[in-house]
Amino acid sequence: MNHYSAIRQYTVITGNYWAFTLTDGALRMLVVLHFHQLGYSPLHIAALFLFYELFGVVTNLVGGYLGARIGLNRTMNVGLGLQVVALAMLAVPAEWLSVVLVMAAQALSGIAKDLNKMSAKSAIKQLVPDEQQGMLFKWVALLTGSKNALKGIGFFVGGVLLAAVGFSEAVIAMAVVLVGVWLMSLVLLQGDLGKAKNKPKFKDIFSKSRAINVLSMARLFLFGARDIWFVVALPVFLSSQLQWDFWQTGGFLACWVIGYGLVQSIVPLLFRTTAGPVSASRPAFLWAGILALVTVGLALALSSTLPASAVLIGGLVLFGIVFAINSSLHSYLIVSYAKRDGVSLDVGFYYMANALGRLVGTLLSGVLYQLGGLTLCLWGSALFLLLVAVISLALPHKPPAESP
Fold it and tell me: What is the pTM assigned to this prediction?
């Protein structure tokens, strides 16, 4: 693939990822705030996302296998189509909006999101030569960071739409926009992107690489640590304890995620990577340890007499910056470690661990918040981050060599 074609495909992939992420973030905020408004407990709200995360675990394993066999363009387009169906399922009269229906729609949305993400991250490996690790780091960081900035905007859009037009009208509007993106993607994405030369067997969905297994375990606890307090506990705390309205809650979380995404985009500048691979174990251990200390400090400050709103705003800014560095470094490493032929198998396995971490974090977010509030959630997060730091010590310093 020539440089011009690679840039064009990267642009299409990034555009798809952006559009999907915008609707995904908005839908997350719509569901959390709408059902909190209806009187659901934090644990019940967490349960609404159970299938979203659970099906994400399965999808990353099976999706990586499908991407290697049928091409990443098809798995990405299937993801976009499924998100349209999930949104349409929720565009029903309020009296039909049962817990079972919401969980089923969230299951479809979880499948769609992880097909889309796995396809986007895997495709970049195909577009960048192995010797250009600096470019790989920058492209992965840009895709990941811009995606999270759009997710933050989605949070804000979800809060605004809920306040302005209501739940059903909001999901209808998002579905219409996403149909247009899906139709363009069907035309523009290259047909054989990411298809493996040697057709993998189903047993190949489980990684045989020690580096990828270690990184996947670290990723599980990293995203579990974030979601323990961010997914359910924080929006509910802002709404119920600080008495923030939908606009304030959605806007604040949106700004946080946008800032976090922007930091992710510039992380390669911190490592000054030009050609060779980033040394992995030392910075991964260092930044995970720093994030654990930040979380402990936030938990202690929230337990003190300091104003809770000031503690959360300041603490979230610091947490977001350090978490973004951790996440961006991990995102580069998985693409660097993955084999070029059938890349989606390795990336799918890694994001399976990511989805499992979110599943555990989401459930613990509801449980720990009911048991001990936001402070207990933060202590759980700090414990997970300590495990991330310890696991990161086992990462290799360089990407494993490709088999000939």
Answer: 0.70
